[in-house]
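Look over this one:
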Amino acid sequence: MKHKPKLGQNFLIDDTARHAIVDALGDLNNRTVIEIGPGHGSITDILADRCQRLIALEYDPSLAAELTFRFRNQPQVQIIEIDVLKADLRALVPEGETADVIGNLPYYITSDILLKLFAAGGAGILVRAVLMMQREVADRVSAAPGIRDYGLLSATAQMNAQVEHLFTLPPEAFSPPPEVYSTVLRLHFAPRFAELGVDAADFDVFLKQTFAQKRKTLQNNLRAAGYTAEQLAAAWPASIPSQARAEALPLESMTQLYKALAQRKAP
């Protein structure tokens, strides 16, 4: 297997793991599945026989050509040579239908891909995803408030999806073995913006402001973002300690503070 380090390629070779990853998506008989980074097709092989339609997005031209030839007699499989970050997911899924996602995400663009998937989930394009990523990133995505790993990525993920930690794979499950462990997460896209009564775009900005400096208190981060001490004092909920940090608060408390500040037309 040829390996291109710049593309972050580590190919899954563990047979039990590849079946477990596909199994985690559930019944695919009538589903469209988008696979991110199929590589040499270890997961593609299984998906091709299970789902109604498979769209595999592969950035490496040589791998895309290999897969196109390999699945040439399976019309339900479409191989597209493209950078997933440039792919129009809406255009890939027929109007009125939804899709699921599966993939081993390149370590160096995992966060960017997740943000793209959250947007598609919020638009009603995607229903669920089973994704493998670096263990440390997965720990951040699934961390609960008050845990050291909880941060902006955690809050963003959990505003957009229900996150389940499935299992972790050692380096030897891949060829070549990476220097890190990999964790598989399952996401059920279920944006909470409407439920919690906040505007999605504005609240995303607010979250970035509150997590701007991890060591700073929530109030200090908001002061740095332009809120005055008077605005904060007038809006501050009694349920939030004055010296609280953003990583200690559940999303319900964060949205409560956001709405209180918005009512006072804070900058």
Remarks:
- The chain has two domains: 5-191, 195-263.
- The CA atoms of residues 145 and 225 lie 22 Å apart.
